[in-house]
Amino acid sequence: MFRTTKFCVLPISAVLLLAAGDASWRIKPISQWNEEDARQVLADSPWIKRATAAIVPDRGEAQRREGGKMGGYQGVGLDRPGTEFSKHGVLMVRWASALPIQTAELKAHEADAPDWDGDYYVIAVYDVPGLFSANQKTLAGDLRSTAVLRRDGKKDIKPSRVDVVLSADKLARVVYLFPRSVPITTADKRIAFVAQIGRLSLAPYFYTEEMQLQGKLEL
Length: 219
Description:
By secondary structure, the protein is an alpha+beta fold. It has helices spanning 12-19, 35-43, 61-66, 84-88, 99-107, 139-145, and strands at 48-52, 54-55, 90-95, 120-128, 147-151, 161-166, 172-179, 190-197, 200-202, 205-207, 212-213, 216-217. It has one domain: Sandwich (Immunoglobulin-like).
């Protein structure tokens, strides 16, 4: 007598869920996310990058004068203890305009989430040290001039605006607003966010294939 063995074939989505551990947000309707789902999205999802930041050598006063700027960034606060940059040399970058991130910020009750009006791709960089020594009158313009969204084989997208929010602990949130009038699609397989923030240079990649939720590209 032969014993019949029954096999359970899981849907591909369930297999991916199991492979991703407890990331249940991947298959739940976004309207059903709870606070734990939200915190997982904000901690580790395709819209979150921990970008290694390189320190750009400080320019001498003569070079700054030739460039039309005085003072510059002295690097004060780059070694600020307790920050991700001081511990690991990284900055947290969020594609903040994506619906999954906006939903997660709301459900996680984040009071300091970026706020903006208009139709933009929004990239936010958190807990940036070293900007308190910068000229606050020209800071946003300086940051705007050194940032782009870069796609392979296409023209760079430049930010329309940059907002800088300085906090009491002498760290900053820098928010870049890029125009949605330039379409980004899944054909743009990877997008580099390239920026110099004070003396910190970073260029994390975002991948459009990963930035889809239930078949829709979320930017």
